[in-house]
Structures are given as C-alpha cells and as structure tokens.
Automatic annotation (TrEMBL), chains A, B:
Pfam families: Beta-lactamase (PF00144)
Gene3D superfamilies per UniProt: DD-peptidase/beta-lactamase superfamily
Signal peptide: 1-31
Keyword Ribonucleoprotein set for record: no
Protein origin, superkingdom: Bacteria
Keyword match Signal: yes
Keyword terms: Signal
Protein name per its UniProtKB record: Beta-lactamase-related domain-containing protein
PANTHER family: BETA-LACTAMASE-RELATED, BETA-LACTAMASE-RELATED DOMAIN-CONTAINING PROTEIN
Length: 447, 447
C-alpha cells in the first residue's frame, strides 16, 4: 500500500487551505495528486498499523519533530493523536457530571440519496463516508442523536483535530465578548494590542479581523521558500527554534511582522493569521488564555464528556487558528448550543446576540472577491461560514473535511471529523454539501 | 525574589534521585543549595506569575525545549503543566460517570503534632505543608476524605507530575500480570525482549527488574559529562534529536545500550531504567502501550475524575519511569484500590494476590546495600517502597515530594503532590515520614 502512495507527488500550490496542516510542522500535507490516492479502506490507519508494536517497525514509526507525521496516509493516524506529536494545553471540562445526549437513532439516514455537484448519478450518505475519509459523523435532530458512526482512528472516547473549525470557537468567543460589550468591534487592533500598532493589523478594526476582511501581505505560495506561509509555519512550529531557526518565535512574535497589503474591509481573504490575532485580542481583553476562556465560557458549561486541548507554540500560546482537538460528541454539544441560540438545557449559556450576529452573516460582496467560486452567495462572519441558503445553514470548516454544519430550518447539527488526503474542502464539498442538504431535507420531512 | 534565587548554585552531585527531573530535559533540577532556597510562600508560582500575560514577560516566560522550565522555582509552575512543555499520551478514564468520594472532613488534622527526625521541638501537620512545598494533599480514612487542600499551581481540577510515583503504577501492572499468570517473574528479560538479550538486562529476571536488584552499569554522576545519566537523558528527551544529538533515541534504543555491572539479585539499586525496561516488558507481553494498559486495567475502572497522561519520548513511548501526570483525587482512588487489596466499591478490580505481593515486601537485605541509611528495615517490591514498620505501611515515592502513602493498620491513604526545591526525598523525609505516622496514629485513635 505504501508503494502505491509513494508514487504520489505533492502539488504544493493547489491547496490554499493547507496552512493549518503546514503550520503544524512546517510542511504541507499531501495536497492533490494526479494519481488516485489510497482509498479510505486502503489507508485505514488501524490496518496500516501506524505506531503499533513495541517498538513500531521503522516504516510505521512517526517521530516527534519529523514532518512525516502529517503526510497522507499517516495523517489518518495523527489527526486522532496530535498531543503525541507536540506540546498541548487543556480546555478543561471541569469536574461536573457529563450530560448525556438523548438518542433516537435512525439508520435509514445511511440510505438517503442525493446527487453530488456536477454528477449524473446519485450517491447514498453511507457512500459519502468512505469517499470523504470520514473518521466520525454525528447528526443531531431536535437535539437528539439520530446518527453516529466512527471509523479509522476515531472512537467515541477518542479525540480528533478540528483544524480550522478551531477558528469558529475563537470567533464565537469574540462574538460573546462583543455582545457583552467587553470588546468593541470598531476598535482598531493597534489600540488593543500596541505591539501590533506598526503591523498590518494596526489600523484594522476588530470586526475586520473577525470577518477576515483585513488586507495583509500574507502569501500562501508553497512553492516559494520566501513565502510568508513558511515564515509563519516556522514561527508557529514549537520545534524549529531548537533546529537553528532564528526568526520570530510563536504566534505573537510572528503577527508583529505582518505587513499591510491594500485596504482593509473590502474583500474577504481567508488567512489563518486573523484567527491568531483574534486569539491575542480576546486574551488581552479578558486576561485569559484562549483555552481558559473557552473552558470558562463554554467547555465547562455543556456537560462535556472530555476536556479538549490545543496545540501550543514554543511559548505555550494556543493555536487559535487551528489547534483544537476534541471528542466528536463534545463538538456536537457545541453545535447544538449554537443552533439553540446560546441555550443549553434551558439555560442561556452565551448571549443570544452573539449567535444572532453569526447567523446574520457577513458581506456577501466581500466574500465574492475571495476566490471561492463554488460557494455562491456565501459570506464569512465571526469566523463562521454562512451559506445564506433557504435553510439559513452555516458552518465551521476545517481542512481535510472537518465540519460543524448547522441547519436551523431542519433543527439539525451535523458534526464530521475526517482525514481526506486533500486538505482543501473544495475536494469534498461537491459531495459533502449536497449530502448535508439531503439529510436536512429528510429530517424536515419528519423522518 | 528572583535575585534571591539566582544566588543559589546547583550542587549536581548531591542528589541521586534527580534522574527523573533530569530526564525531562537533559538538565538537573536545583538539587541542594548552601543558601536557603525561597520558601514555599516566596516561590508561589501564581504569585511569581510564570507564563502569565499575553505574552508573559521575558523573565516569566518558560520556553518549550529550554531546560529552564524545570529549575526551581519555575518547576513549581511546571509540575502542574508538563503537557505544555512536551508531547504526551493519554490514560483514558473512559466515558463512564465519575464515582465521587464520601467526605468526612476533619480539620483538626491540621493541628496534629509530631517530632521531625532529629528535631527537639514538635511541628504541626499544617506547618509541614509549607515546609515540604506541598501543592496538594488528600487523606483518606476508611475510604472517606478526611483532609484535602490545594496550594501553589494545583487545583482540584488540575493535574500534577507524579514523577517516580509513576514507577509504582508500572510495578502494579506487572504485579497484576504476574498474579494472572501472564508474566513469569522468573523469566529472563532477554527471553521476552530479544533486543535486550545482549544488554545488561538480558540475563536478569523479570523479578529482579521489578525489584530493582539488577546489576547495571548506570552511573548518575551529574558532574561527569560521560555519565550514563546524561546519555539516558538525551535519549529520553524528545527534543535532543532535533538539536543534532545522534545517539540512541527513546527508551527502547537506550535500554539496549545498558551494560551489566556485577551480579543480578544481590543488591537493590534505585535506577529508573528498570522501570523503563519493565514498561517495555509489560507492553511486549500484553501488546498494549503502558498508558493503554493502565487505562484498561485501572484508570477506566475507578470512576476517575480526569484522564491522566504520560510524557513520551521521540517515538511516542510513554515514560514508565516517571512520566505520569494526574489529578490528586484520582491518585487517591488508586491508593484506596491498593489499600483495599484490589477491590473498589465491592468489586475485585485487580487480583488480591497482586497487592499482597507488593505488601509482603522485597529483600530487606538487598535494600540495606542501597545507600538509604535513613530508611532502616525498608525494602522495595514491585516498584513500591515497603517500610516494614508496625503498621505495615508502604509507599509510592517521587522526587520533589510526590507520594502515595498507605497505612493498612490505620486504614489510611495519604496522597501528596509537592514541588520541593530539592529533588531527593531525603530532603523532606525527616518531616514527611513522622508526619504521616502521626496522622495514622491520630486516625487509629478514632479521631
């Protein structure tokens, strides 16, 4: 099987969303291949035996500090074991009893059919699971679990990298602070963080950071060794400093080096560094680290099953742009909180206004300029993706297929963890997005 | 406060038990000072502000991969945040509901008086807490919590490095496997792990490893740069490989290089590498990593409050000799399981014989040769310290003051986490051991 995959070459420039994977260890994950990558079944991480044995055989050993660990197919193991490869910081669930979900399982969901974008023939939801390298999927309807399955490296007591879904947590925390009047979205970043005054962020507003309409010189051309993505990755990687790298260390030092490139507020530009800057902003405003704030405001309030965690930089700062790992059901609890406009079991946990501000969406005009031609009419608000479709659906999205997809009309939350060989969601959207709509339509029909 | 501590120089050779701290990052912690170290109050990690602020000020920033993080007084922060400085692997509590302790708090325990070894005047238990830099203490009597306090970096929902207390978990797992007939204590190590056949471990029995009566060339002379302790530390440290080190990587590679030095079975010699070898043995025998085995056999069975974790080497192998971090109450649950001869809430979780074999102790003759003159009549069995005193007390012990102290006659478990500036327990035993006996005597008196 390895022989097959070794033939695949990494096409570095094909994948813009790869920044998260890249920032993990200064190396891009496999982006796109001309050959067919291993199928989900062929690349099953348990079958492949990554890190199994005492010691694991050389060709199944993923060494700490080596970029190999996040290359497909090894990443199908690593997404469930991020803490084993780097330092982390907990998001405490506190010690309260967990709140179990109610279950109303409906396995007919497997048989829901739909037509993928651009396809002539239909596909079932069950077929999408392998096609999208799903590691775990959970569907909530009316607050009850109607569908839940685990594959690959994930189990119900395991945890999985959320990748850029992390950003929606950062954005939600910021939205909470705005709703509470503790963070002024019109304030200039430089007025909150003087260290960023001279950077490209300095005269951007908090709102522009939250909606990623900042104009920043931040190039993600992986083929150019002088591209900002590489400098960022080296700064974010907790190990490069130990390997002789002498540039900026950590998110905070890196962010100060970012230059302006144009006029803020005109166009949506998906750049992870906005989420890192927002993490800094909310920490400076609250005096709490992002992991502590997330625990205080959300993770300790929903009867979570497991404490979550963030990977950290060399200074112990959590990666607000993509470093969260958590259990599938706990991600679903968060999704349900958002669907419920901030209420959980009758209690208003976070302000209703914080969720309303997400759901209303951002500028569709600004989004249109962003180079996401397939996501017609969408916008980006508080680090959530807003579809503006008939159901008013919105989503948190991360590379390799991570998602929290919320459809208020269907009263539905879908959470999916995955390890697709291609980082960019454009690789699985043609299947995933119509599949989610089909499930919503089925549930709206009263099952 | 820092000025005061900067005057203290590290006396490298004074502290034999420092191996655990050293293995963390190839550097010894502050061992002993001629001046008085900062007091517990002066060195309080919250007051000192380690890693507080966004970013923390330079003199409070502990960088990943820097040896500073485990130097006193910074170690008073780091003992609660080990995962923030290195890769880790979880010991899952599973998703079962937690089992709360019954409480029967008796604050009069604070006022129990006793005479420290060699002292003329008495001290109260409360006074010992500051003197021993206690971060958390919990006393169980008849299975109920009678005393529980947190200090320094620790809170009830926090976790703390157990240091060499970890070894007693490794030893208990081995004792379970022996009781179940799955591990032959008379088997030669080389027959179980062929890779160790040619090493000093090869012709030692499993029993000799479990009781640390192996004769190994393993020098802990910190002043000699060629001392084995330094090679071990570099191998164990997940980062040295990234810094140009090209020796053996990880516990398994290092253990193969250990040479024999004398005759196995004659003398107790406290060497952490025995616990690492035992971890390898039980993994090879069961096909499970030590963290998985600990979860399956113990951590998922006691209604633990938190999943625990191990620090790992560059190959993801848990540090069986000292890498466990856990919550205080969960350590107490384990202590109570052992006190109860393997039963927990009426159910036999681990074989009674496994505990009986610990409690019977090892060779006092072999122990006498070990250079622990203050621990008269003690022995070492299955990686537990057996006092052979009138109460039949026995203990798990780790550097800087970690302990699980079990007194079957008093039906008592004391668990203490601490961050004493001196690694070796000989620095706090003159206070700690008579204090524990005084608490036992008080509880035996029916409170």
């Amino acid at each position: 099987m390895l022989t097959k995959v070794n033939r695949h070459h990494t096409a570095l420039t094909l994948c813009k969303s790869i920044v998260l994977a890249a920032s993990v260890l200064s190396t891009p994950a496999l982006a796109q291949t001309q050959d067919q990558p291993l199928s989900a079944q062929e690349s099953d991480p348990i079958e492949m035996g990554w890190m199994q044995g005492f010691p694991p055989p050389d060709d199944r050993l993923l060494k700490i500090g080596s970029p190999d660990f996040f290359q497909f197919p090894a990443l199908r193991y690593s997404v469930c074991h991020m803490r084993q490869f780097m330092p982390t910081i907990p998001v405490s669930r506190d010690l309260k009893p967990m709140t179990p979900f109610e279950y109303a399982i409906d396995e007919q969901i497997s048989d829901i059919t739909f037509k993928p974008w651009g396809a002539d023939t239909t596909m079932t939801l069950e077929q999408t699971l392998q096609k999208t390298y799903t590691d775990g999927i959970l569907v909530l309807h009316d607050g009850e679990v109607v569908y839940e399955h685990y594959f690959g490296c994930l189990t119900e007591e395991g945890q999985h990298a959320a990748m850029s879904v992390t950003k929606s947590f950062t954005g939600t925390l910021a939205s909470i602070l705005v709703a509470e009047g503790k963070l002024n979205p019109q304030a200039k970043v430089g007025s909150i963080i003087p260290e960023l005054e001279e950077s490209g962020f300095g005269d951007a507003t908090v709102r522009q950071v939250m909606d990623m309409t900042t104009a920043l010189k931040y190039d993600e051309d992986y083929s150019d060794p002088n591209s900002e993505i590489w400098i960022y990755s080296k700064a974010a990687n907790p190990y490069t400093r130990l390997q002789g790298y002498d540039g900026p260390v950590g998110y905070f030092e890196y962010l100060q080096t970012v230059e302006k490139n144009g006029t803020h507020g005109e166009a949506f530009g998906y750049r992870t560094i906005n989420a890192d800057a927002l993490g800094w902003i909310i920490s400076r405003v609250t005096g709490k680290s992002v992991n502590q704030l997330l625990s205080d405001r959300i993770w300790s309030k929903l009867g979570m099953e497991q404490s979550a965690y963030y990977q950290v930089d060399a200074h112990g700062i959590p990666f607000s742009g993509g470093g969260l790992s958590a259990g599938l059901r706990d991600m679903a609890r968060f999704g349900q909180l958002i669907l419920n406009e901030g209420r959980w079991h009758g209690e208003q946990i976070i302000p209703q206004e914080a969720v309303a501000d997400i759901r209303q969406g951002g500028s569709q005009e600004a989004f249109k300029k962003s180079g996401h031609p397939k996501l017609k009419g969408w916008s980006y608000r508080n680090m959530w993706w807003i579809t503006h479709n008939a159901d008013g659906a919105f989503a948190a999205r991360g590379v390799h297929g991570q998602t929290i997809y919320i459809d208020p009309t269907a009263n539905m939350v879908i959470v999916r963890f995955a390890s697709h060989p291609v980082a960019a969601n454009s690789a699985n959207d043609p299947i995933s997005l119509p599949a989610y709509q089909a499930v919503a339509d089925y549930l709206k029909g009263g099952k």
